[in-house]
Specification:
It contains 2 helices and 41 strands. The protein is mainly beta. Strands 2-33-39-36-37 form a 5-stranded antiparallel beta sheet, with no helix packed on it. A 4-stranded antiparallel beta sheet has the order 1-41-34-38, with no helix packed on it. A 4-stranded antiparallel beta sheet has the order 5-32-31-30, with no helix packed on it.
Amino acid sequence: MANTINAYDADVRIPQFMGLKQYGDLMNGNPIYAAHCVNVNTKGGTLMPMAAPISLPGSLEAPIETLMKVNRRWAGSGPDEMIVAASGGKLYVYDMDEQAWSTEAVTMPSGMEQFGSNVWSWVDYEITPDGEDTPHDVILLSNAADGMFMFDSQELTITAVTTPYKFGVITRHAERIWGSAIIDEPDKLVYSRPYLGNGDLSIAWEEAGPEEQPEDGAGEIDQPSWDGDSFMALRTFGDQLIAFKRTRVWRVLGTNPGEYEFKEQYGGGSYVAATVAVDSQRIYMLGQQGIMCYDGATVEPFGKEYAYTVWNRMNREHMDEACACIWRDKYYIAVPLDDSISNNAVVTYDMHDGTWLMRTDLQIESWLPAENALYFTTVDDPYSVRQYREDAWETGEAIEAEQIWISPWNDLGYPHKSKGPFKFFFAPEVQDKPADFTIIVDTERGSRSKEVKVYPIKGHEERMNYDAKTIRVPFAGHGRKFRVTIKAKGGAVWRICGGIVLNVDQETED
């Protein structure tokens, strides 16, 4: 008896959305991960557009190259948090209460007209000047061209700090200031005396006197690697100091010179100092092949399979432009992709749910994580500061760039059988203006697409949860494998909760 060809329905259900997972052939992979997605947010498993950023009012006349902040805990008046920008060789203050930049730059130290560089390494510090009872919240800032200075957030003054070298990077560890990235001393680490509460930093870098204990003084350590590499970043990691070169990492244990123990770690270093960021368990950084992490023992590739093709697109000739930060348990890194010479993409790793996402609507040049917001500057508008936002459903403002989500390929485990036609089901919710979707079903035989316009439900403003209507989108065509793409035009605020379903007819043999 000859076989007869029948068909049965199979439902491919994608119950939630979890961002990128790109390594391998992706055939029949977990459909909650996207083979490609851009400019979308998957907060809580819900698919939505990325939120548009907002700009802080006001701008400066020269490009901003470094953003700093100070929490003014002891200030008698004025804002509790202050943003300080290095621009045009000077420092400017942004008043968060007044929402405006200072009309004049902070007064330079006597005899100086402006700094030679606008790129600074900086740390928060605190001093109590002689004769005063109330501490002052200050910023210590340093670069290899100008040396070290102190910005007093109460007095709004800048004071030069005498140091034995001009440090390109500084950090605070175990009550001492550490400096490195010295132009003529690439292997040297220098540490100050322990905390000097009176603010007399002129003696901070002196060795212990004859009547003092050795651990009360400053000092320096050479840690050569004999390969032409140099220290480029310093970070405190728990009770350790981690010193980075491009190809090596050292861990410094101990809290005073008599206890210091240097141990080289395994796995390499960081190629871009501005991408080194610390959380409670790891230090993240950019390597030649993607994100690396240091876990207290080794430096290893991290999550490469998730944003695999993104890292393959990275422009390695200009990766020194990359910058990163950690804010609210997410690692944000801006990188140049393809032929771009500036950062034209932001890749985000969410430490809670392991989600990797990418957006391409911003050209970020620097980050500033603050207590209540994440700030940044951009290449296309370097004179002002913007606030980063992600949840478009919460803010009510979506980005103008197109949003795309593409599923992995699927053959239902039967690569020899034909599938189709297809029926796509989703229940989008829309806020104030219609959302324009393009739904695409690809097979190895070709691609079919349909346009879907979704309107806001009348009276949605008063509803806690919008009553989303399930929409059925049929597709003709057949193929042995298939995938689905969701595209949305920019500007509209929408979300898809509960995932999507693709109903597939598949042939069978009796």
